[in-house]
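MODEL INPUT / OUTPUT PAIR
PAIR INDEX: 1
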Amino acid sequence: PPCLDMEQIKNVSTKTKLCRHDSSKTENQRNREENTPNNKRSDHAYQQIVEFLKPDKVDHFNSLCTPSERVQFIFKNQAFKLLLPGDHDKWVCSGEKSAKNSKQMREAGNEAFKEGNDAIAMQCYNQALLAAPADTWNGQGDDMALAFANRSALLMRQGRLKECMKDNTMALSSGYPKHLSYKMYQRLAKCASQVGLMKDAKKYYEDVLASLEFSNMNKEQKKLLLLEVSVEISLLEQKEDSIHKCIGNESKSNNIIDRIEKNQNFPAFHKSVTIKYDPTRGRYGIASEDIKCGTYIVCEEPIVSYLYNQHALTHCMTCLAPVESLIPCFQCSRVVFCSADCRRKAWDSFHQYECKIPELVTSTYENIFIAYRAIAQMPAKFYIENKDKFTGYDPCRASEDSKQKMTSPYLSSDYQNLYNLATNSETTSDANKLNYASCACVLLHYLRLNNFFGTDVSKYSDNDLSEIEILVGSLLYHVLEIIQFNTHSVNYLGNWTPTCDVEMSTLGSALNPTSALLNHSCAPNTARINIGTKSVMVASENIQAGDEITDGYSYQYRDQAYETRRQWLRDHYKFDCECRACHQKWPLYEGCKQTVPRPGKNKKDLENMEVRFWKVNSLAKEELMKGNYDRVASLWSKLSTELEQTIERPHNHFVHLYFALHDCLWLKWGNTGQ
C-alpha cells in the first residue's frame, strides 16, 4: 500500500521549486531519483509497524476515527519505537561539548595565526567555539570566552572590524577573565574608531581605564597604557563632530517591506489581494484591482522554518543567514548562529527541546521535524490555554465566502491560521493514517525526553498519555498532514554568470500560512524569492482585476507534458489541475516558438516586437552587470505589457521574461550560500 513519503516534504512537496526550460529534468525529479533509497526505507518502516501490530490490531487502528485516538493507540502499543534509531544506523553523535577539545583547537588556531595561515586559524577557532561548554542561563564559559577573544584578533587583522567588535563583545559577555578585560575594550575602541563610531570608541577607552584596576600589570605598564588611552580620547574628541556613523545608513528604499502596499486584512499580502473560497478549489487568491508586472504582492515571515542538516554548520539555525564567524550553541556542537540574539531567540523557543536530539540533524526522517519545531517553539501551556481554537476545522477561514467573519487581521504567526491550512484528510489512506500517527508519536516521545511537558505527563505508565500529551499528539498528527501539502522551500542563490541562469539550491523549509492560500498553476503569474526565512512574491505578468493570483508548486508547462504534470499533482496534492496551461494543453518550451499575433496586430507589429524584445534583453544584461537590479526589473516589467498586447501565450518570450525578472530579483534581494 502507499505510505507517507517523508522525503516528499523536503524534495517534492516544497512549493517553490523552479524548473528551467533548458533542463532535461526538473529539480524535483532529480531529487526524487536521488532519494529513492530513503523512500524505500520509509516504506520498509511502514511494513515493520504493520508486522509488529499484527492484523487484528491493524484492523482496530483502521476503525479509529480521530487523530487523538490513533496517536493514543500507537503510543500505548509502542509501535512508533520501530522508527527510533537503532544500532543498525550510523548516527553522527559528535555534538558533545568538551573543554579539552576546545582548548586544543584554540591552541592550534593560535599557532596558525602566528604563521599567518588565516584560513586554518579561522577553522580552528570556530571548532574551539563549537566544542566550548557554557552555562545556558548566563552564557558564561571560560573556553568560549577565550576562543571569541582569539578569533577577534584574527578578524581585526583581516579588517573585518564589525565582526571583530561582535567577537569582543561576546568574549566579555561569556566571562572573559576580568584581569584581561582591558584588552577587549581596547580592541573594541580601535575598531569603533576605524568604522567612525567615535562616541562608542570614547566609551570603550573609558572602559579600558575602568578595567585597569583589575589588571595584573605593574605600575609602569599601567602608566604607559593610561597615557596611550588619554591621547586616543583627546584625538577622538577632535574628530567626534566631523565623522558620522557608518552603520545603519541603509536607505529605506532598499527595504523590501517598503515595496509592498499593506493589506489591512492580510498584512503579508499587497492591498490588491483578497481571498475567496470554492468547495472544489479551496481558498484561492484574487486580484481586487489591476496589479502591474513587477509589483511586490507577498512578503511573509513564516510561522516556522527549518534548516536542513547539510547546512547546520554553515548557516544560522534561526534566520538561515550564511555564517563564517559563528556563534555556538551553549550545549551542543551541531548548530551555529549568526548572532547572540539569534541564539537566544532559538533557545528561548525551540532549541532547548532540540539540543539533545542527535537524530534531529542526522535522521532519515529529519524532514518531519518541522512539525516538531512548530509545536516546540510555543510552551505547553499555550496549547492548554488555546485548546478551543484547535477543535473545529474551517476550510474557508478568512475568505470572503466564510460565514464566520474575521474580527482581526489574518496573521501568519497565528496558530489558528496554521491549524486551518489544507490537510486533504478526507482522502488520506489507512496506510498514511498509520504513518502520521507513528511519526506523531516519535515526535511526542522526543518532547517527553526533553521535558517539554514538565510535570504534566501521564502518572500511570510510560505507555499512557496525559491530557496535554494527547492534545499535543493530535496537533502533531494534524501538522504532519499540513506540511505534506503546504510546505515551501527556503532557497538560496548559487552560481551565477551573465551567460547562465541563476542556480538555486535549498536551505530548508518553511510554513507560510498566508502564501499557502494561493493555488497552483502550471503557468504561475508570480515569481518567488527568499530573503532570510521570508518569502517574497512578485507579479511576473500583469494581473487584471478579478484574475486569480497563482503560485507554482511543482512542474510547469514548459518542462513537463500535460499528462505527466496532471498525474503528479493528482498523486501528491490530490487535485486535478485546471489552470490555463492545462485547460488549453500548452506545449513544452520547445513547442512554444510559433508567434501568434493578438487580435488587431499584424506582421509588422510582430517584427517590431521582436526587435524591441532583443533590444531590452541586451540592455537588461548590461544593467545587470552594473548591479542596477531595479532598472532591470523595470525594463522587463514594462516589456511585459507590450508582449501581452502583441502576441498570444504561450510563447518563449514570456518564459524568458519570467526568468529574467526572477533572476534579477534574486540577485538584488535573495539569500546567498556564502
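PAIR INDEX: 2
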Amino acid sequence: MEKYSCERKVQVLEDGIDADLTICQKFPIVGFDCEWNSGRKVSLIQLSTTDNIYLVRVLSAFPEFLKVYLEDRSVIKVGVNVEGDIKLLANQFGCIVRSWVDLRNIAINNSHFTTFHATKLRSLEDELSTLEAVDPNNEELRAQNWIRRSNWRPKLGLDALVQACTSKALCKTSSARYKDNWEQENLSAEQIDYAASDASASLDIVLALSSAETFGKPVSKPSSPNDTYLSLCERYVEQRWKEKFGYSVLLSAVHRLCPEIDFYQYVTKPPKAASKRGGDKRPLKALNLEVKKDPPYLVSRKPLYENCKLYAPDGQLLCTCNRKKISWYVENGLATALTVREPGVPAAAKLNFEPSGRPSGSQDFYCLEKVNECCGCGRRDKLIRKNVIPREYRKHLPKEYKDRQSHDVVLLCPQCHRLGDIHDGILRESLAVEYGVPIDFRRRFERVDGTVMKVRSAARTLLNPKYTLPPDKRTTMMQVVEEYLGHEPSPEELSQARGLQPTTLSSDATDHGAEVVRRVLEGGQQNAFIRRWRTAFVEGMKPKHLPAGWSVDHRTRLSEQEFHRVEDVAGSRCYRVDDVMISHHDVEMEDVERPEIRTNSDM
C-alpha cells in the first residue's frame, strides 16, 4: 500500500517566537495533535489547515497567541484521542482547548466507514466458510476459525483510519516516534515529517468521510472546508470517546449491513480448549462446536404462548391466553369449557356472562395465535422474554402505558438477546446525551439510623450458630436489643430484629431510567418515546419472526375508558383478560380468590 505523505507547506515555529495564526481563522476545521517526551510533558503542538501545517514548539513557555487560538470555540480541532492531549495542556499550561472532536466518534457513525468494514467482514467470512466447506469434518480447523472470528475487531487508531479513508499507510512505528527527543534543540527531518503527517492526516480523514466520492481515495488538495465538513463535525464537538460503547455502535452497524452472517462467534470467545495452543490434551471433538454455548440467561422450560381461546357468549373470540387463566374461569363457573387439551385442562372456553369490552376484530394482536420461537432467528428452544422498552424505563411509565400491555414483550434466544442488549445500549447512550442524564446517574438521599444498625448487628451475632460468645458478651448484645424493643425479646422478635433496615431512601430518590422518563413525560413525548424503542428494535435486530399483528405503530396505551374500567375493578366486578374487559354481576364471588390477570396474552 502506498505510504501516506504530507503535501502541505510545513512551518516550524520555534520556542519563544511570537507568531500570528489569524490566517488559520479562515479554516473553521483544523487537524490537531501533540507530541511529548517520556515524562508526558508536551513539547510540540501541530495544527493543520488545508494549505499549511504549523508545528509550534512549547519548551519553556506556552505562547499567548496559541492559547487564544486553541480556546477559540469558532475553530473545530479534530484528531484521535484528543481528550488525552487537551488534559495534558490543561494540567501543564492552563490552556483549555475548546471545540475539539475525536475522529473515532465520527467514523463509527459514518455510513461509508461502516460499509468499508462490512465489506472486509464479508471477505473474512467467505474465506473461512470456503475452508470449512472443503473439509467440513475438520474440528481443529473450525476451532481455529472460531478464534479468528472472535479476534476480528476493527481498529480505530489514527493509522487504521487513514488506511480506511485514504487507502494509504501512515507510518506509526515505534522507531518513528522519537518521543524522547522532542525537546532537542533542532528537530530532525524525520521528526518534522512524522509530526506534520499526524495533524495533516486528521484533517484528511474528515475530508474523506464527507462523501462517497472522496472516501477510500487519496485526498486531493481541497478548497476551504465548507458546510458539509462542518455538519459532519458539529454533532460530535467535545463528545468523549467511550471504548466499549464505540465498538458496540460499530459492531451493531456492521451487523445491520451483514444480516446473513451469524455473529455468534464474532461476539463470543471460543472454549478455552480451542484457544489454547498447547497443554490441553482434550480432543477438539469434545468441544462439541456444533452446539453453540448459550450466554448465561434464565430461559423458560415450558411454552410461553399456550394459545388457549376465550369466547364471548355469542361466539366472538375475545383473546388468547394461557391455560391457567382459562381454567380459573371454568373452575369458578364463569365460563364453560368447549375443548379439552388434556384431562382437566380446557383449551377453549365460552364466558357465561356478557363482557364489558370486545376486541376491534379477529385480526387484533391479542386474538391471534402466537408461535413459541425467537422473533429474530426462529429458534424454538431456550427462549427468553425481551422487553422492547427496557424495564428500567418501562417501570416508571404511567399505568395506562404498561398495565395489560404485552405487545412490547417478545421472545428471543440467548444469542439474539445478547445482540438486542447491544442495540439497547446504543439508544440508552443516545438518551443519556439527549436528556443530559448519564447512565450512572444516581440521586439517592439516604438516612442511616445508627441505633437500628447496632440492633441488627447484635441480633445477627446472637443468632449465628458459628459464634460461641462469652456470657458477658452475649449479655451485652442482648441488652442492646432489649433497650430498642423495651422488653426482653422473644425468639421471633430476635429473628425479626436480624432483618431490620437501618438505611431508608428519601421519597425523591431516582436513577437514570426514572429521570429520563420524568423528562419525557414533562415534554408529553411518551408515545414517541415508546415508538422510538420499537423502531430501534426493528432496525437493529431486523427480526424475521415477529408475532402476527406486531407493529411499531401499535397503540401505546389503554384508552381513557378502558383504563378507568380497569381501575374500577372492585366496584363493578370487572376482570381484565388480555385486551377485553369482562364484567360479572350475577355470580357471588366473596369467597372466590380473584385471579391475577395482568397481561394481554399469556406472557
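PAIR 2 NOTE: DSSP finds 21 helices and 18 strands in the chain.
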